[in-house]
Structures
1.
Amino acid sequence: MKTAVVVAIVLGSVLLQALLARFAIGGRLAFDLVLVGVVFVALQSGPVAGMLAGTIGGVLLDLTAGGLVGIGGLLKTIVGFGAGVMGTRLVVAKPYARALIVAAATVLHGFLSMALQAAIDKWPGLDWAAMLSETGFNTLAAYIAFAAIEGVPGALSRGRGRQRTAFSRRQW
């Protein structure tokens, strides 16, 4: 995957995250579409591209969210590398398998975030409902995205095939 495509996917996921974040009702809807984009890039292109996507996406998300810049970049870089390694070691060709990788990456990201916060300041506590909610939303978003990406080329080729036969095979 070219660097420009990686940057475009990450910028698109950051933009989508920023647009949909205002619909999170009082902070009860937790989702991380940037993490989904990072895992997508990592599964498609490997650990190095996952690290690049994680660094860019995490830092951009830190800049838009405010607070300490770099923590999200570090966490998403680690998760992008891990997802890239899992993608090269395991067969993850189907959308549900990729969505499960996103679920595992979301849980890992949550635990790493709590551990880093505990190392910097104090133990933040574990909110299982929030982690489960975020994992569910991320997994659903990933499944929809992966199924759409997998289905588009087939739909386009079927459409081209019909169009070609309709105009090129006239029966006189």
2.
Amino acid sequence: MSQLLIPDFDPAMLDLLRQRASQHGHSLEDDVKSILEQAAESASPSVWVGVDAIRQHLESSGWKFSDSAELVCEDRDR
């Protein structure tokens, strides 16, 4: 059995969660578990996953990427 402790949780928020659970006919624990599971499942993958896929596709087609740090230094030194 897992446990999750949340220190300094706002008592007013806890009351709202209790009310919500009661409206759904659930225990507080079951309702909070459901909320957390839904939040974790709906979390979208990082935007960088898509960016990396595009970059890999471009690199495989021969596209060359320059180092932006070098370009910044060149502009600064002009």
3.
Amino acid sequence: MRKITHTNNEVEQFFHHYMKKDDRKILFIGTVGFNDAGNYFATALSSCKHISYKFFIEQRASIPPPIVAAGSRNRTFLATALEANDLEFAEISIVADDEATVAGRNAVRASALWLNGGYTDIVVDATSMSRGVCFPIIKQVLQFARDNGVEPHILVAERGLSGIEIQSMSGDVACYMHGFQETMETDLLSEALVLWIPQLAENADTSLRRIFSALKPSPAEICPVLPFPSSSPRRADELLVKFRGDLVGWDVNLLDMIYAHESDPLDVCATISRLHKSRDSIFKAATNIPATTVLSPNGWRVGSIGMLLASLEFNLPIMYTENIGYTVKSGSFPALNTDVPPCRWHIWL
């Protein structure tokens, strides 16, 4: 899968020389979240001559008032900043009343109404999207773009929320992401040799334990992903200490750890691609037992996008647990920040 990428200042240059041409007709799909970094790309493209904005508002049962207020503030900001453009907000449920994960299904059902003829480019802004919404939407957009001669783009930005500590709450059930089950849990792979690649993150221990228990067949090999280089030089070491009990229980060889750049999605994508291709060729040549690679994105968003790119290229299954809510552990939201996020990526598929 060919990719053209731009990072940081290159992104705005690409917007100027390509996106803002008079002959481009753009569909922008994003999410209104509590982090104001999710407002940046939409406003940066607001001067495009032909652009339609569609924003998801993810509905969860357990959202504390400060997060609700921050989301409402960002929605008001976007509605004001983009008032001259075609603009729509769509609420989607992330978890059903019976606690089933329905994020991906509801998202692709809603976006199917937006994917129609006439657009030259479709942009998915992953900055504020949960993975259960973002990954199925990008896969849907990529297929639509290929079938209709449209150019698909992914945007992602990251900026920390200083002054407040938020923790997500994962659901009790691990499942394959909508559109990313592939042939798992079928007779074709009932005896497969599974390589599991989980992304280690500070609040992901409970989620990853549930995923490990749910994987059938159980992983024959595990290669966890750690963020290095990182803005915090000791982050990878601290995660190793945090997960030391799990790594021992999972029988992980420390030589099998994957170190991927915290702010470069292509780094983790390239590493997963090399592992999967080499492993696939070896097992095909040496045995009749099938082999597959299962990904579990958690933690830092840019690295998750890298895992998505690898999944799209090799049709790799993704197992995860959905966020059912958030808790505010301490602090309060800072004032609305309209500065340019320090980490920005554009990926043209």
4.
Amino acid sequence: MDTSMDFRACSQLGRALLVVLSLAFVSAQAESPKPLSLDEAVRLAEQQAPSLDARQAALTSATDAVGPAGQLPDPELVAGVDNLPVTTGDAFSLTRDFMTMRKVGVMQTFTRREKRDLRTRRAEASAERERALLTNERLSVREATAKAWIACWAAEKRLGLLQSLRARANAQAAAATAALSGGHGSAAEGLAAKSTKVLLEDRITQAGRDVAQARADLVRWLPDAGDRVLADAPDAFELGVDPDAVLRHIATHRDLLTYDAMERAAATDVELARAEKHPDWSAEFDFQQRGPHYSNMVSFEVRIPLPLFASDRQDPMIASKQAAADQIQAEREDALRMHTAELKKVLAIWRSAAERANRYEHEVLPLANDRADAALAAYRGGRGDLQATLGAFDNAVEQRMVYTDVLATLGQAWATLHFAFPQER
């Protein structure tokens, strides 16, 4: 047998297998989606949100209405019969009586230029309001998606931190078992260690449930990407702007963007109501055909409404529109105060959560871990008791629970502040 040929064949087979495995690895890497960042989640949700499609349709509708608002009314076709006899032998004859005329004509109402300009301004204000509502809805979708992403990230963070304690729980149970075997412990201590381990698993199960619920909320905004692995969370300790400057920009809060357009629309309504005291006019031109023995005729007439009872019609309407304008101004002031108070509260929550998260990350959690490790080491060395060890372990569990709650609070407050204003401000 030629061993050199066998060696070459095996070598070629090995290289081929290596190429196949490399291609499979590259293909798997290409097919595996990258972790879902918060920025990508917000962008995808914005592309898929039905509420934004609805608001965009409303804006298109309002924008398309601007042009027609300033046009003259359509002309009207006039057709009929004048002076048709209904008695004697000429009854219902169109040709026997000289006064009977069949007419056809056209009528046009001429709206005053001032009114047409005001109606255009009113339609533009409506379109501007819809544009502000679209901006508001876009920011609302971004905030809701960010909060869902942060809640999911925080839930997974809690699950991971609790799972990291399994090694300590197992070590405690092993130490209690060893102490019992060596005659230094009691059966009660062994059961207490096992109970702590079981309770940790129960916490882990609850944390897994919270992750599943948070994922369900995220999938609402991201039907096609809500199950992807999450990337690292953004730096919630930074707002991107001076926190003290947030309140100075309160007038541009997303929920206040519509009030400028609403006030312009209300002021235009007042002017339109006043313009009704100056009536429009209409003109009509008719061709009138009479019987064969009589000449045909043409007619031209002008109609002008007479606002003789303005105190009962136009003046109350002006007062009504003015009251509506005053209502919008009062509502704006109320909304301004409400959102100012809310932002102050959220800023306080964000500052407190940022300080606490930093303290837990650099002081509380390391101290809890060191305390748990020291207590376990002392118990193993016969210098401590199991109750102190289990107490230190329970404290480590609780501190992780509180820490993840603080992280979630920090992230939620950050999202509220980050998406409260248009990003281009």
